[in-house]
Amino acid sequence: MISTSDNPQAKYYEDVYKKIQANACGDVKSCNESLFTFVKMDVLKHLPLPSTPNDVLQILEVGCGIQSVFNNIELSDLKVEVNAIDFCQTAIDLSQKFNTKKNISYYNKNISSITDTNCFDCVVDAHCLHCIPNEDDYHQALNNIYHSLKRNGIFALETMVAHKKMSFDDGYHFCRDTKILWKEKVSAATTTTDIPVRRIEDCLSLEQILLSIGFQIIYFICPVGFKVIPTETRNFTHPYDPDLLRVVCRRILN
Ligand SMILES: C[S@@+](CC[C@H](N)C(=O)[O-])C[C@H]1O[C@@H](n2cnc3c(N)ncnc32)[C@H](O)[C@@H]1O
Q1: Is the CB of 131 under 6 A from ligand 1?
Q2: Secondary structure in 3-state letters for the chain
Q3: Digit-coded pLDDT (tens) for 14-57
Q4: Exposure check for the chain: N or C terminus, fewer CB within 10 A?
Q5: Ligand 1 in reach of 132 Cβ (< 6 A)
Q6: Residue 93, class by beta-carbon neighbours within 10 Å (0-12 exposed, 13-18 middle, 19+ buried)?
Q7: In the chain, what are the domain boundaries?
Q8: Global model pTM greater than 0.70
Q9: Ligand 1 pocket check for 123: Cβ under 6 Å
Q10: Distance 86 CA to ligand 1 centre (A)
């Protein structure tokens, strides 16, 4: 299990999910709609074909939060086994309490520390990658994902990306040099400490990172007008929010 005292990022999410836990009474909100649409419309058709009719595809879902995207009723008939991971124990506790599908298992793991190799037919980033602000951890996470895939396994990524006209709500500031979005946090002593909350790459840099790791990109689209809300301050998008990027790529080498 990950100790939150070792990881300020995990502590940040722990606080978010503790609030959800305090209000949860069996009615945990459904998974992100955009992610579900991406998986259903763009990812399933790229899944490797099962080698035998009884074959069950192995899936790793990264940053599942309180519910796997594969928990959706419309994905119920898939012959898949899902390992859904999140580094926040409260999120994992909530997942295990409220989601009872036998083919989905929830684990407390940090994607930047996993050591699995050649295990999965598909890895789905469930909006986790842009929540890893530190550059080394971000690259490590992508490398780990690559090595966790079997040959010809696919990686599906829906993530926020930067554009020139981005701006952010009060209490947040973005550093274009480091690509890190910071949140102002007022401590009890009224001194202000900022905490890094997002990493927002631009499309071209992310494409280069994926190619340099060895991925073959088979689908790469930034749909016009699709935005991602980068903060917890609202539930509707603005034109100045980061853009949405959807990528499907394949591990081609052993
Ligand atoms: C934006 S939330 C998405 C949650 C859920 N998938 C959804 O779509 O509603 C990102 C999730 O990634 C998790 N996370 C962030 N960094 C992580 C890491 N390094 N390893 C594993 N999980 C991480 C957070 O705890 C959080 O639950």
Answers
A1: yes
A2: CCCHHHCHHHHHHHHHHHHHHHHCCCCCCCCCHHHHHHHHHHHHHHCCCCCCCCCCEEEEEECCCCCCHHHCHHHCCCCEEEEEEECCHHHHHHHHHHCCCCCEEEEECCCCCCCCCCCEEEEEECCCHHHCCCHHHHHHHHHHHHHHEEEEEEEEEEEEECCCCCCCCCCEEEECCCCEEEEEEECCCCCEEEEEEEECCCHHHHHHHHHHHCEEEEEEECCCCCECCCCCCCCCCCCCCCEEEEEEEEECCC
A3: 988 998 888 765 555 667 899 999 999 999 999 998 888 889 99
A4: C
A5: yes
A6: middle
A7: 4-160+200-251
A8: yes
A9: no
A10: 6
Distance between CA atoms of 251 and 247, rounded to whole angstroms? 13
Q: Tell me how far the alpha carbon of residue 62 lies from the centroid of ligand 1, in angstroms.
A: 7
- Compute the distance from residue 193 Cα to the ligand 1 centre, in Å: 22
Strands of the 243-251 sheet, one edge to the other: 104-108, 80-86, 57-62, 120-125, 149-161, 243-251, 215-221
Q: Which two tokens stand for residue 115?
A: 């050591």
**Cα–ligand 1 centroid distance for 148 (angstroms):** 18
Superfamily of domain 4-160+200-251: Vaccinia Virus protein VP39 (3.40.50.150)
Average pLDDT, the chain: 91
Answer for the pair 61, 82: CB distance below 8 angstroms, yes or no. yes
Q: Which two tokens stand for residue 239?
A: 């034109």
